[in-house]
Specification:
Distance between the termini: 31 Å
Organism: Ohtaekwangia koreensis
Largest sheet: 10 strands, mixed
Protein name: Putative ABC transport system permease protein
Helix content: 40-55%
Subcellular location: Cell membrane
InterPro entries: ABC3_permease_C (IPR003838), MacB_PCD (IPR025857), Macrolide_Exporter_MacB (IPR050250)
Pfam family, one: FtsX
Number of helices: 13
Amino acid sequence: MDIIENLKEGLRSVRANMLRSVLTALIVAIGITSLVGILTAIDGIEQSVNESLASLGVNTFDVKSRSNRGANNRGKTEKLYPQITLTEAKQFIEKYDVPATKSLSAGLTDIAEVKRKSKKTNPNVQVKGCNEEYAAIKALELQEGRNFSQFENERGTQVAVLGYKIYKALYDENEKAVGTEVTFLGAQFRVIGILEEKGQLAEDNFDNMVLIPIIKANQMAKGRGLWYELTVGIVDPTQLEYAMGEATGLMRSIRHDRIGEQNSFELEKSETLAENMATITNALRIGGFSVGFITLLGASIALMNIMLVSVTERTREVGVRKALGATPLRIRQQFVIEAIVVCLLGGIAGVILGIIIGNLMSRAMGIETFVVPWMWMMIGMIVCIIVGLISGYYPAHKASKLDPIESLRFE
Protein backbone atom coordinates (compact mmCIF):
# COMPACT_ATOMS: atom_id res chain seq x y z
CA MET A 1 0.00 0.00 0.00
CA ASP A 2 2.92 2.35 0.71
CA ILE A 3 4.19 1.94 -2.87
CA ILE A 4 0.69 2.56 -4.29
CA GLU A 5 0.33 5.64 -2.12
CA ASN A 6 3.74 6.87 -3.25
CA LEU A 7 2.70 6.33 -6.87
CA LYS A 8 -0.41 8.41 -6.28
CA GLU A 9 1.68 11.06 -4.56
CA GLY A 10 4.08 11.06 -7.51
CA LEU A 11 1.20 11.64 -9.94
CA ARG A 12 -0.19 14.40 -7.68
CA SER A 13 3.22 16.06 -7.69
CA VAL A 14 3.35 15.84 -11.49
CA ARG A 15 -0.06 17.52 -11.74
CA ALA A 16 0.93 20.20 -9.20
CA ASN A 17 4.06 21.08 -11.20
CA MET A 18 2.70 20.36 -14.67
CA LEU A 19 5.01 22.55 -16.78
CA ARG A 20 8.17 21.44 -15.01
CA SER A 21 7.12 17.77 -15.16
CA VAL A 22 6.17 17.98 -18.85
CA LEU A 23 9.49 19.59 -19.79
CA THR A 24 11.39 16.94 -17.83
CA ALA A 25 9.32 14.14 -19.39
CA LEU A 26 9.99 15.64 -22.84
CA ILE A 27 13.75 15.47 -22.24
CA VAL A 28 13.40 11.78 -21.40
CA ALA A 29 11.02 11.29 -24.34
CA ILE A 30 13.60 12.73 -26.78
CA GLY A 31 16.21 10.29 -25.50
CA ILE A 32 13.87 7.30 -25.78
CA THR A 33 12.66 8.48 -29.21
CA SER A 34 16.21 8.60 -30.54
CA LEU A 35 16.94 5.19 -29.02
CA VAL A 36 13.78 3.38 -30.16
CA GLY A 37 13.50 5.30 -33.46
CA ILE A 38 16.98 4.48 -34.72
CA LEU A 39 16.76 0.86 -33.59
CA THR A 40 13.30 0.49 -35.17
CA ALA A 41 14.62 1.79 -38.50
CA ILE A 42 17.58 -0.61 -38.28
CA ASP A 43 15.21 -3.52 -37.56
CA GLY A 44 13.17 -2.51 -40.60
CA ILE A 45 16.27 -2.45 -42.81
CA GLU A 46 17.42 -5.82 -41.49
CA GLN A 47 13.99 -7.38 -42.00
CA SER A 48 13.84 -6.09 -45.58
CA VAL A 49 17.32 -7.40 -46.41
CA ASN A 50 16.58 -10.76 -44.78
CA GLU A 51 13.43 -11.05 -46.88
CA SER A 52 15.46 -10.29 -50.00
CA LEU A 53 18.04 -12.91 -49.05
CA ALA A 54 15.27 -15.38 -48.19
CA SER A 55 13.75 -14.88 -51.64
CA LEU A 56 17.15 -15.72 -53.15
CA GLY A 57 17.59 -18.55 -50.69
CA VAL A 58 20.68 -19.45 -48.69
CA ASN A 59 21.40 -22.09 -51.35
CA THR A 60 23.01 -19.67 -53.81
CA PHE A 61 26.61 -18.66 -54.38
CA ASP A 62 28.45 -16.31 -56.75
CA VAL A 63 31.49 -16.94 -58.91
CA LYS A 64 33.21 -13.72 -59.95
CA SER A 65 36.54 -12.13 -60.83
CA ARG A 66 38.98 -11.24 -58.07
CA SER A 67 38.49 -7.60 -57.11
CA ASN A 68 42.03 -6.83 -55.85
CA ARG A 69 43.98 -4.47 -58.07
CA GLY A 70 47.54 -5.35 -57.07
CA ALA A 71 47.15 -4.08 -53.51
CA ASN A 72 50.07 -4.20 -51.07
CA ASN A 73 49.50 -6.77 -48.31
CA ARG A 74 52.14 -6.94 -45.53
CA GLY A 75 54.85 -5.72 -47.84
CA LYS A 76 53.92 -8.05 -50.68
CA THR A 77 52.10 -6.96 -53.82
CA GLU A 78 49.14 -9.24 -54.44
CA LYS A 79 49.10 -11.05 -57.75
CA LEU A 80 46.78 -9.65 -60.42
CA TYR A 81 44.46 -12.12 -62.10
CA PRO A 82 42.64 -11.56 -65.40
CA GLN A 83 38.88 -11.07 -65.26
CA ILE A 84 36.52 -13.91 -66.03
CA THR A 85 35.70 -13.73 -69.74
CA LEU A 86 32.36 -14.37 -71.43
CA THR A 87 33.77 -17.52 -73.04
CA GLU A 88 34.87 -18.87 -69.65
CA ALA A 89 31.49 -18.06 -68.10
CA LYS A 90 29.65 -19.83 -70.95
CA GLN A 91 31.92 -22.86 -70.57
CA PHE A 92 31.10 -22.98 -66.87
CA ILE A 93 27.33 -22.88 -67.58
CA GLU A 94 27.65 -25.65 -70.18
CA LYS A 95 29.90 -27.98 -68.16
CA TYR A 96 28.58 -27.51 -64.61
CA ASP A 97 26.55 -30.70 -64.09
CA VAL A 98 25.24 -30.21 -60.51
CA PRO A 99 21.42 -29.67 -60.64
CA ALA A 100 21.22 -25.88 -60.36
CA THR A 101 20.00 -22.63 -61.90
CA LYS A 102 22.90 -20.73 -63.47
CA SER A 103 22.62 -16.98 -63.92
CA LEU A 104 25.15 -14.85 -65.77
CA SER A 105 25.27 -11.06 -65.58
CA ALA A 106 27.60 -8.11 -66.16
CA GLY A 107 27.21 -4.36 -65.69
CA LEU A 108 27.58 -2.44 -68.95
CA THR A 109 27.29 1.11 -67.54
CA ASP A 110 25.87 3.05 -64.59
CA ILE A 111 25.41 6.37 -66.39
CA ALA A 112 23.06 5.61 -69.26
CA GLU A 113 20.28 8.01 -70.29
CA VAL A 114 17.16 6.26 -71.56
CA LYS A 115 14.99 8.15 -74.08
CA ARG A 116 11.52 7.64 -75.50
CA LYS A 117 9.98 10.24 -77.79
CA SER A 118 10.31 13.58 -75.93
CA LYS A 119 10.89 12.01 -72.52
CA LYS A 120 14.16 10.91 -70.99
CA THR A 121 15.58 9.76 -67.66
CA ASN A 122 18.44 11.17 -65.65
CA PRO A 123 21.87 9.97 -66.84
CA ASN A 124 22.22 7.55 -63.93
CA VAL A 125 20.53 4.41 -65.26
CA GLN A 126 22.36 1.12 -64.80
CA VAL A 127 22.38 -1.11 -67.89
CA LYS A 128 23.05 -4.75 -67.09
CA GLY A 129 23.50 -7.66 -69.46
CA CYS A 130 22.13 -10.97 -68.22
CA ASN A 131 20.88 -14.36 -69.34
CA GLU A 132 17.33 -15.67 -69.12
CA GLU A 133 17.87 -17.13 -65.61
CA TYR A 134 18.89 -13.83 -63.98
CA ALA A 135 15.37 -12.57 -63.16
CA ALA A 136 14.36 -15.85 -61.50
CA ILE A 137 17.46 -16.20 -59.36
CA LYS A 138 17.23 -12.55 -58.24
CA ALA A 139 13.51 -12.95 -57.43
CA LEU A 140 12.46 -10.26 -59.91
CA GLU A 141 8.74 -10.20 -60.73
CA LEU A 142 7.33 -8.74 -63.94
CA GLN A 143 4.57 -6.19 -63.74
CA GLU A 144 4.00 -6.35 -67.47
CA GLY A 145 5.36 -8.40 -70.37
CA ARG A 146 7.87 -11.22 -70.21
CA ASN A 147 11.51 -12.14 -69.65
CA PHE A 148 14.15 -12.83 -72.33
CA SER A 149 13.94 -16.12 -74.18
CA GLN A 150 17.00 -18.34 -74.62
CA PHE A 151 16.93 -17.61 -78.35
CA GLU A 152 16.95 -13.81 -77.77
CA ASN A 153 19.83 -14.15 -75.34
CA GLU A 154 21.96 -16.33 -77.61
CA ARG A 155 21.34 -14.10 -80.65
CA GLY A 156 21.88 -10.84 -78.80
CA THR A 157 18.50 -9.47 -79.83
CA GLN A 158 17.93 -5.78 -79.05
CA VAL A 159 15.21 -6.27 -76.45
CA ALA A 160 15.05 -4.77 -72.95
CA VAL A 161 13.29 -5.18 -69.62
CA LEU A 162 12.84 -1.83 -67.84
CA GLY A 163 12.94 -1.12 -64.11
CA TYR A 164 9.85 0.38 -62.48
CA LYS A 165 11.37 3.86 -61.98
CA ILE A 166 12.36 4.09 -65.64
CA TYR A 167 8.86 3.03 -66.73
CA LYS A 168 7.31 5.78 -64.56
CA ALA A 169 9.68 8.38 -66.04
CA LEU A 170 9.05 7.50 -69.69
CA TYR A 171 5.40 6.48 -69.79
CA ASP A 172 2.09 8.03 -68.79
CA GLU A 173 -0.18 6.51 -66.16
CA ASN A 174 -1.51 3.08 -67.28
CA GLU A 175 0.24 3.42 -70.66
CA LYS A 176 1.34 0.11 -72.20
CA ALA A 177 5.10 -0.18 -72.51
CA VAL A 178 5.50 -3.64 -74.04
CA GLY A 179 6.16 -3.39 -77.78
CA THR A 180 7.37 0.23 -77.68
CA GLU A 181 10.91 1.39 -78.44
CA VAL A 182 13.44 3.06 -76.15
CA THR A 183 16.91 4.37 -76.94
CA PHE A 184 20.09 4.33 -74.83
CA LEU A 185 23.83 4.16 -75.51
CA GLY A 186 23.15 4.99 -79.16
CA ALA A 187 21.00 1.91 -79.81
CA GLN A 188 17.26 1.31 -80.06
CA PHE A 189 15.68 -1.51 -78.03
CA ARG A 190 12.21 -3.03 -78.06
CA VAL A 191 10.63 -3.19 -74.58
CA ILE A 192 9.42 -6.71 -73.73
CA GLY A 193 8.83 -6.36 -69.97
CA ILE A 194 8.51 -4.06 -66.93
CA LEU A 195 9.82 -5.09 -63.51
CA GLU A 196 7.68 -4.70 -60.41
CA GLU A 197 8.86 -2.08 -57.92
CA LYS A 198 11.61 -3.58 -55.80
CA GLY A 199 12.82 -0.73 -53.56
CA GLN A 200 16.29 0.78 -53.25
CA LEU A 201 17.44 -1.49 -50.42
CA ALA A 202 17.59 -4.52 -52.65
CA GLU A 203 21.00 -5.96 -53.59
CA ASP A 204 20.97 -3.65 -56.62
CA ASN A 205 18.72 -0.73 -57.50
CA PHE A 206 16.60 -2.78 -59.91
CA ASP A 207 14.02 0.02 -60.16
CA ASN A 208 16.60 2.18 -61.97
CA MET A 209 18.00 -0.60 -64.15
CA VAL A 210 17.62 -1.83 -67.73
CA LEU A 211 18.21 -5.52 -68.43
CA ILE A 212 19.43 -6.58 -71.87
CA PRO A 213 20.72 -9.93 -73.22
CA ILE A 214 24.26 -10.69 -72.06
CA ILE A 215 25.52 -11.23 -75.63
CA LYS A 216 24.22 -7.80 -76.64
CA ALA A 217 25.92 -6.20 -73.62
CA ASN A 218 29.19 -7.86 -74.65
CA GLN A 219 28.83 -6.50 -78.18
CA MET A 220 28.11 -2.98 -76.91
CA ALA A 221 31.20 -3.08 -74.66
CA LYS A 222 33.27 -2.83 -77.89
CA GLY A 223 36.20 -4.85 -76.63
CA ARG A 224 36.13 -3.46 -73.08
CA GLY A 225 36.30 -6.33 -70.60
CA LEU A 226 33.12 -6.60 -68.54
CA TRP A 227 33.04 -7.94 -64.98
CA TYR A 228 31.03 -11.11 -65.47
CA GLU A 229 29.38 -12.67 -62.44
CA LEU A 230 27.85 -16.14 -62.21
CA THR A 231 25.17 -16.84 -59.60
CA VAL A 232 24.38 -20.50 -58.99
CA GLY A 233 21.18 -21.59 -57.22
CA ILE A 234 21.31 -25.15 -55.90
CA VAL A 235 18.13 -27.23 -55.91
CA ASP A 236 19.10 -29.14 -52.74
CA PRO A 237 20.42 -26.79 -49.99
CA THR A 238 22.16 -29.69 -48.24
CA GLN A 239 24.42 -30.04 -51.30
CA LEU A 240 25.67 -26.44 -51.16
CA GLU A 241 29.22 -27.25 -50.00
CA TYR A 242 29.52 -30.06 -52.54
CA ALA A 243 28.20 -27.78 -55.30
CA MET A 244 30.69 -25.05 -54.38
CA GLY A 245 33.51 -27.59 -54.44
CA GLU A 246 32.46 -28.76 -57.90
CA ALA A 247 32.21 -25.15 -59.10
CA THR A 248 35.70 -24.41 -57.75
CA GLY A 249 37.21 -27.44 -59.48
CA LEU A 250 35.47 -26.68 -62.78
CA MET A 251 36.40 -22.99 -62.80
CA ARG A 252 40.03 -23.79 -61.89
CA SER A 253 40.11 -26.18 -64.83
CA ILE A 254 38.56 -23.61 -67.21
CA ARG A 255 41.00 -20.89 -66.11
CA HIS A 256 43.99 -23.27 -65.98
CA ASP A 257 44.87 -22.54 -62.36
CA ARG A 258 47.96 -24.51 -61.35
CA ILE A 259 47.92 -27.01 -58.48
CA GLY A 260 49.00 -25.35 -55.23
CA GLU A 261 48.16 -21.83 -56.39
CA GLN A 262 45.18 -19.88 -55.06
CA ASN A 263 42.01 -19.50 -57.07
CA SER A 264 42.13 -16.84 -59.78
CA PHE A 265 38.46 -16.06 -59.02
CA GLU A 266 36.23 -15.59 -55.98
CA LEU A 267 33.36 -17.64 -54.56
CA GLU A 268 30.87 -16.03 -52.19
CA LYS A 269 27.75 -17.73 -50.83
CA SER A 270 24.60 -15.86 -49.86
CA GLU A 271 25.08 -16.78 -46.18
CA THR A 272 28.17 -14.55 -46.25
CA LEU A 273 25.99 -11.66 -47.41
CA ALA A 274 23.64 -12.28 -44.49
CA GLU A 275 26.59 -12.39 -42.07
CA ASN A 276 27.98 -9.14 -43.50
CA MET A 277 24.58 -7.50 -43.14
CA ALA A 278 24.33 -8.70 -39.54
CA THR A 279 27.74 -7.15 -38.80
CA ILE A 280 26.66 -3.82 -40.33
CA THR A 281 23.31 -3.72 -38.49
CA ASN A 282 24.99 -4.62 -35.19
CA ALA A 283 27.39 -1.70 -35.67
CA LEU A 284 24.42 0.57 -36.47
CA ARG A 285 22.63 -0.64 -33.33
CA ILE A 286 25.66 0.19 -31.21
CA GLY A 287 25.75 3.66 -32.79
CA GLY A 288 22.01 4.18 -32.27
CA PHE A 289 22.20 2.98 -28.66
CA SER A 290 25.14 5.34 -28.05
CA VAL A 291 23.17 8.33 -29.38
CA GLY A 292 20.19 7.41 -27.23
CA PHE A 293 22.41 6.84 -24.18
CA ILE A 294 24.06 10.27 -24.50
CA THR A 295 20.65 11.93 -24.80
CA LEU A 296 19.34 10.01 -21.80
CA LEU A 297 22.44 10.95 -19.81
CA GLY A 298 21.57 14.61 -20.39
CA ALA A 299 17.96 13.86 -19.42
CA SER A 300 19.03 12.17 -16.18
CA ILE A 301 21.18 15.15 -15.20
CA ALA A 302 18.28 17.53 -15.90
CA LEU A 303 15.91 15.29 -13.94
CA MET A 304 18.27 15.14 -10.96
CA ASN A 305 18.55 18.92 -10.97
CA ILE A 306 14.75 19.29 -11.04
CA MET A 307 14.34 16.74 -8.24
CA LEU A 308 16.87 18.64 -6.11
CA VAL A 309 14.83 21.82 -6.66
CA SER A 310 11.70 19.85 -5.76
CA VAL A 311 13.30 18.67 -2.49
CA THR A 312 14.20 22.26 -1.57
CA GLU A 313 10.67 23.51 -2.37
CA ARG A 314 9.08 20.70 -0.34
CA THR A 315 11.37 20.85 2.70
CA ARG A 316 8.45 21.87 4.96
CA GLU A 317 6.32 19.00 3.54
CA VAL A 318 9.12 16.54 4.35
CA GLY A 319 9.28 17.92 7.88
CA VAL A 320 5.51 17.43 8.34
CA ARG A 321 5.75 13.84 7.07
CA LYS A 322 8.62 13.06 9.40
CA ALA A 323 6.77 14.65 12.32
CA LEU A 324 3.82 12.35 11.55
CA GLY A 325 6.08 9.29 11.68
CA ALA A 326 7.39 8.84 8.14
CA THR A 327 10.72 6.97 8.14
CA PRO A 328 13.72 7.96 5.97
CA LEU A 329 12.97 4.86 3.82
CA ARG A 330 9.44 6.11 3.08
CA ILE A 331 10.74 9.58 2.21
CA ARG A 332 13.32 8.07 -0.16
CA GLN A 333 10.64 5.90 -1.75
CA GLN A 334 8.40 8.90 -2.31
CA PHE A 335 10.99 10.93 -4.24
CA VAL A 336 12.47 7.98 -6.15
CA ILE A 337 9.01 6.82 -7.30
CA GLU A 338 8.15 10.38 -8.30
CA ALA A 339 11.28 10.49 -10.50
CA ILE A 340 10.41 7.10 -12.00
CA VAL A 341 6.83 8.23 -12.73
CA VAL A 342 8.13 11.27 -14.64
CA CYS A 343 10.57 9.06 -16.56
CA LEU A 344 7.89 6.49 -17.41
CA LEU A 345 5.55 9.20 -18.71
CA GLY A 346 8.35 10.47 -20.93
CA GLY A 347 9.31 6.90 -21.87
CA ILE A 348 5.80 6.00 -23.04
CA ALA A 349 5.68 9.11 -25.23
CA GLY A 350 9.22 8.37 -26.47
CA VAL A 351 8.41 4.77 -27.39
CA ILE A 352 5.32 5.80 -29.38
CA LEU A 353 7.22 8.58 -31.18
CA GLY A 354 10.21 6.26 -31.73
CA ILE A 355 8.06 3.60 -33.43
CA ILE A 356 6.39 6.21 -35.65
CA ILE A 357 9.63 7.99 -36.59
CA GLY A 358 11.56 4.73 -37.06
CA ASN A 359 8.93 3.36 -39.44
CA LEU A 360 8.78 6.68 -41.31
CA MET A 361 12.56 6.50 -41.75
CA SER A 362 12.20 2.94 -43.07
CA ARG A 363 9.37 4.02 -45.39
CA ALA A 364 11.55 6.86 -46.74
CA MET A 365 14.17 4.24 -47.65
CA GLY A 366 11.64 2.19 -49.60
CA ILE A 367 10.74 -0.37 -46.90
CA GLU A 368 7.02 -1.02 -46.69
CA THR A 369 7.01 -3.35 -43.67
CA PHE A 370 5.68 -1.79 -40.43
CA VAL A 371 7.96 -2.84 -37.57
CA VAL A 372 6.92 -2.99 -33.92
CA PRO A 373 10.15 -3.54 -31.95
CA TRP A 374 8.81 -5.21 -28.82
CA MET A 375 12.29 -5.91 -27.47
CA TRP A 376 13.41 -2.28 -27.88
CA MET A 377 10.14 -1.08 -26.33
CA MET A 378 10.83 -3.22 -23.24
CA ILE A 379 14.46 -2.07 -23.12
CA GLY A 380 13.32 1.56 -23.47
CA MET A 381 10.97 1.27 -20.49
CA ILE A 382 13.60 -0.53 -18.40
CA VAL A 383 16.07 2.24 -19.24
CA CYS A 384 13.47 4.80 -18.09
CA ILE A 385 13.15 3.08 -14.73
CA ILE A 386 16.94 2.93 -14.36
CA VAL A 387 17.27 6.62 -15.27
CA GLY A 388 14.56 7.45 -12.71
CA LEU A 389 16.32 5.44 -10.01
CA ILE A 390 19.71 6.99 -10.71
CA SER A 391 18.38 10.55 -11.04
CA GLY A 392 16.01 10.34 -8.10
CA TYR A 393 18.16 8.54 -5.55
CA TYR A 394 20.49 11.38 -4.53
CA PRO A 395 17.69 13.98 -4.11
CA ALA A 396 15.63 11.34 -2.26
CA HIS A 397 18.55 10.51 0.01
CA LYS A 398 19.05 14.23 0.70
CA ALA A 399 15.36 14.61 1.56
CA SER A 400 15.44 11.59 3.91
CA LYS A 401 18.31 13.15 5.88
CA LEU A 402 16.53 16.46 6.55
CA ASP A 403 16.03 17.31 10.20
CA PRO A 404 12.23 17.46 10.89
CA ILE A 405 12.53 20.43 13.30
CA GLU A 406 14.60 22.49 10.87
CA SER A 407 12.34 21.44 8.01
CA LEU A 408 9.21 22.69 9.79
CA ARG A 409 10.89 26.07 10.26
CA PHE A 410 11.73 26.29 6.54
CA GLU A 411 9.96 29.12 4.69
